[in-house]
Amino acid sequence: MDLQLQNKVAIVTGASKGIGRAIAQTLAGEGMRLVVAARSRAQLEELAASVGNGCLVQAVDLTDPDAPARIVAETIGTHGRLDVLVNNAGSTKRGDFLTLSETDWADGFGLKFYGAMRLSRAAWPHLQASSGSIVNIVGIGGRTGQAEFAIGGAVNAALLNLTKVLADRGVKDGVRVNAINPGGIATDRLQTRLKAFAAERRVEPGEAEQQMARAFGVARFGQPEEIARLVAFLASPLAAFCQGAIVDADGGQTRTL
């Protein structure tokens, strides 16, 4: 299926590993020109070398309020246009609500929510010019609260609402804005949780994965590429009637409406 993304330009944040890396590789496979952003320059440069096509590396910290505008300026300076923004960067600290610090909360919102908000604001005029789109990678914790995921749940809920807000404005401005809520995806972050799960229950890693999947109420964990393919579709003209859509890609873990 031709997604009609050839030679269009995308910014992908959090692209150095996991879901972000898979998104970058998938969009590059569709012929897009990429700008990849994350903190790790070495990992980004390795990714850029592998995808080619003039991939632009932006080794930045998105908690810096000025970084998003610089990324967009570099994108326009290099490629002359912007068609797709994928807000994927951001991890939040898990833990007991009563022990999470003010710094933990500020870091969680600073990277994932404010990074996405500032990038969307800086990118908006250029996406308006290209009739482009934003895809926010959020997370099912924004829909279903969990005691040990207080920061992540609050941040994700805020980003889901921002998705709806921007989609509402996008109807007038010609910018499509949608979101994906990944569930348990086989990334380094999940592997860390699996190791702790295995140690706690004194089982082998393979058994731990099966037990944790059952605890989540799913048949298996997802792969980063499965999220990446959804991004490519939502970013493409084939999803032209999707506006403010929130897609739960979680193997059925979310059972609420």
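The above is record 1. Record 2 follows with the same two-line structure.
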Amino acid sequence: MKKENVVLSEVKDNTAIITLNRPKVFNSLNSELEVELERIFDDAVAGKKIRAIVITGNGRAFAAGKDISEFVGKGGEGMSAISKNDHRIFGKIKNAPKPVIAAINGLALGGGLELAMFCHIRVASEKAVLGQPETMLGAMPGAGGTQLLPRFIGRGAALYYLLTGENIPAQEAYRLGLVDKIVPPDKLMVTALAIAKVIGQKGPIATKLILEAVNKGLELSLDKGLELERNQWKINGDTEDFNNGIKSFMERKPVVFKGK
């Protein structure tokens, strides 16, 4: 009997769709899945025709956390190594030169929420449930949760959810700014792909420069961030896409971006 792939991939309209595929265990993130996720993600980033990437889950979950069975007997050093590898893989998503959209179809708990937070945009089903329940196991988040959640929803709210392990319903996640859009379940992928298509029609170099400016700028003072923006503008201003875009606008003609 052929073994099912733990991560699926397809391309629609210049968008790579990556689907976590361990539905029987709510797409829990084990080492096999993460190896495949990284490989497929790297291929999508390298694909010349790919303008955006959507990550979602098969079944009732986006990803309901890490595979706890892989934690047995690891100890402190082993858990630190797992954390380091998660940061490395998920960091690729955060620093990707192409926009990454998390289409949160159901449970996004623990490592699943951390994966979603590393994405650039989060669209959630109205039935989605998010959270960092690690304290219920006497554990703490290790794939970015303690650092990312406060950046999204503020220190107090983040500490509340991190310390209590309480779930965050989709509506509350939207109110807090943890997700950017909530839609009916049957509209989730349509919406995520529509957003990806809209972004994909824009200048790819400008998109890349915006992602870099926001990611790096949030770690800088405002003055340093503005300096970074000026430097990005210098790069942008010398591109063929920018100059053709201005010319097309002035001539009232449609612009064709070449990524140059």
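The chain has a mean pLDDT of 93.
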